[in-house]
Specification:
Elements: H1 7-14, H2 30-52, E1 63-66, E2 72-78, E3 83-89, E4 93-97, E5 102-108, H3 124-137, H4 147-151, E6 157-164, H5 167-184, E7 190-196, H6 197-207, H7 218-223, H8 229-255, H9 271-283
Helix pairs in contact: 2-6, 8-9
Length: about 290
């Protein structure tokens, strides 16, 4: 059973949180309700973690913005139509973390089309990544900034997070984004990450600097390998140097028509996962 706000409930909630949307006049579909329940569970993970830390609502280290409050419109020139066409992005939710200056657009991928990334030319997940990337880098008519910078003048780095039900979905999207997509978009100030629903509950709390509630067994804790801050820094520098080296070779090869037929070095399929590990290790020393 799913409950929603009545008109009086909406007014009461509005007194405490201005971003609350008015009740819908339409009966929601079962697919919509399932999607909203999954999003609510992610939000509750963050809210519960903030309560465990005994933080008052105005002091929560994150802002959760629903899809209805995060509509982002933009235009681009279409050569086929010989004119500008309009686009609209509506992330399922947007997570903002002011202290870290991070803005994460969250997309739930509950279907199985993510598993067909390599076989489908016009895959929906591919299209989403491309649309978000173009929104971040496309300049409006005046050309002085980008549509993303117009919508968000703070210019925090934009991130796209896919939350998927299964590890197979996660790996399919992550491998395609880290390899084929990132290989031709390595200079974009835009990061794509993928987590399963289970991972997202803990990882979003970690990103916001909140206790995730995840407990480790004494055996697992004793089996861990302790790293010094200098070792963590060396690991991260090694990762950055390796990826930068691959990127430099790829850029050079693409700029030389005579050697364009040579095979380009590929980014490791799990390099985004490795980057996340480095970031988590670095965060532990902050």
């Amino acid at each position: 059973m799913v409950w929603g706000l009545t008109s009086l409930g909406y007014l009461a909630a509005k007194n405490h949180f201005e971003a609350v949307q008015p009740p819908s006049l339409k009966n929601p579909s079962s697919a919509f309700l399932e999607r909203q329940l999954l999003l609510t569970q992610l939000f509750l993970s963050l809210a519960s973690a903030a309560q465990r830390k005994k933080l008052r609502f105005p002091c929560w280290p994150f802002r959760w913005i629903s899809s209805d409050s995060a509509r982002m419109s933009w235009t681009e020139f279409d050569q086929t139509a010989n004119g500008c066409i309009g686009h609209l992005l509506c992330p399922d939710a947007t997570l903002e973390m002011p202290s870290a200056k991070r803005r994460i657009f969250i997309e739930l991928e509950a279907s199985h089309h993510a598993l067909g990334l390599r076989s489908q030319r016009h895959n929906a997940t591919m299209s989403k990544i491309e649309r978000y990337a173009r929104f971040v880098v496309t300049p409006p008519a005046d050309g002085e900034t980008t549509f993303y910078a117009q919508a968000f003048p703070d210019r925090w780095r934009a991130e796209l997070l896919f939350v998927v039900p299964l590890a197979a979905h996660r790996d399919a999207i992550a491998q395609w984004a880290a390899g084929e997509w990132y290989g031709s978009n390595e200079a974009l100030p835009f990061n794509v990450r993928v987590l399963t629903f289970e991972e997202a509950h803990f990882e979003l709390c970690r990103m916001a600097g909140l206790p995730s509630g995840r407990s480790s067994s004494p055996a697992a804790a004793s089996a861990g390998v302790a790293l010094t801050e200098a070792e963590v820094r060396a690991l991260y520098e090694f990762y950055n140097a390796t990826i930068a080296g691959i990127a430099a070779v790829r850029r050079f090869a693409k700029s030389q028509p005579g050697i364009a037929t040579l095979p380009l070095p590929e980014y490791p399929a799990n390099h985004e996962t490795m980057k996340g590990i480095c970031v988590r290790l670095a965060d532990s020393f902050r």
